[in-house]
């Protein structure tokens, strides 16, 4: 599509939205045309009371799907998630730089992050709401997505139930590994090795916040504020806890795990290393958290 067509298409969509679209109504009979006012970070936004065509340009795809809404367009990381391939098989990948593709999807709501590009142009296509990553904790963020989709009650019910189940599992794990045992989460991404704090996906929220397991003091010192900290493989033993969760990617060189430095870490020698799929563990939405809870039950408790 030629770029000079974008303004024309945007105006066309706005005209159709204002006048009503009989064809769209027949395709989505549940859409009532009613709106609600969502109090976003940027101020009040009129959004559909029952959105049917949601485009997600960020890390909130799992939140949207957990609330019973299937997106019509998602970001690249969501498409890479191996656990979502079936759900998102027919859902196209979109980005904040491909306005033509977003226009073609005819969205009634767009969700992104505060650093999403072209927000002013996106707002001309459909109501657009952005969130600052980390401004809210991972559970409150889900409740906010629930408010945005007019499903706050459902979101709150899941949060309450999840917190209870995760806390109980954490207590069981502590009884098995000891109250003072520590857990480190590490990941080699591209060419850099990282350790993670308690709010950067990869299972960190459920391990440290929901389950209440202990982070090594050295990791807490360097990663609690930023959420992550880059290290060299040579100093990894200084950041390793009694247990290691290693997030891996099949397209990343993880040869550091074959070195003597790594192999001599006590957690490695005692077979206390849990290797997880980085693409499946990347987010902290309800679908991912449920999967992480299941994995950690199996890894720590053998069930």
UniProtKB/TrEMBL annotation:
Entry's localization field: Cell envelope
UniProt keyword list: Signal, Transport
UniProt organism field: Melghirimyces thermohalophilus
InterPro entries attached to this UniProt entry: ABC_transptr_periplasmic_BD, Bact_iron-sidero_bind
Record bears the keyword Signal: yes
Gene Ontology, cellular component aspect: outer membrane-bounded periplasmic space
Sequence segments annotated as region (Disordered): 24-44
Ranges of residues in domain Fe/B12 periplasmic-binding: 52-303
Polar residues composition bias: residue spans: 34-43
Signal peptide: 1-25
Pfam entry (one): Peripla_BP_2
The family this protein is said to belong to: Belongs to the bacterial solute-binding protein 8 family.
GO biological process: iron coordination entity transport
Protein's UniProt name: Iron complex transport system substrate-binding protein
Predominant localisation class: other
Keyword Protease belongs to the record: no
């Amino acid at each position: 599509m030629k770029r000079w067509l974008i303004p024309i298409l945007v105006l066309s969509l706005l005209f159709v939205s204002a006048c009503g679209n009989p064809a769209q109504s027949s395709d989505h009979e549940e859409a009532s045309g009613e709106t609600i006012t969502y109090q976003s970070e940027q101020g009040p936004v009129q959004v559909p009371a029952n959105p049917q065509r949601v485009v997600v340009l960020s890390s909130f795809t799992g939140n949207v799907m957990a609330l019973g809404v299937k997106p019509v367009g998602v970001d690249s990381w969501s498409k890479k998630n191996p656990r979502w391939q079936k759900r998102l098989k027919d859902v196209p990948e979109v980005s904040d730089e491909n306005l033509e593709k977003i226009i073609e999807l005819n969205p009634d709501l767009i969700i992104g992050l505060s650093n999403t590009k072209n927000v002013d142009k996106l707002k001309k296509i459909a109501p657009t709401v952005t969130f600052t990553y980390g401004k809210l904790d991972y559970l409150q963020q889900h409740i906010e997505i629930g408010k945005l989709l007019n499903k706050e009650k459902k979101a709150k019910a899941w949060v309450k139930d999840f917190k209870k189940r995760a806390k109980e599992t954490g207590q069981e794990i502590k009884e098995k590994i000891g109250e003072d045992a520590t857990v480190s989460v590490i990941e080699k991404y591209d060419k850099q090795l990282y350790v993670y704090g308690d709010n950067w996906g990869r299972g960190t929220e459920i391990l440290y916040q929901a389950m209440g397991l202990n982070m090594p003091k050295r990791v807490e010192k360097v990663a609690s504020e930023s959420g992550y900290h880059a290290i060299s493989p040579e100093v990894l033993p200084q950041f390793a806890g009694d247990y290691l969760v290693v997030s891996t990617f099949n397209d990343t060189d993880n040869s550091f795990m074959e070195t003597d430095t790594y192999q001599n870490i006590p957690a490695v020698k005692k077979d206390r290393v849990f290797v997880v799929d980085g693409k499946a563990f990347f987010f902290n939405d309800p679908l991912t958290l449920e999967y992480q809870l299941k994995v950690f039950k199996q890894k720590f408790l053998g069930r």
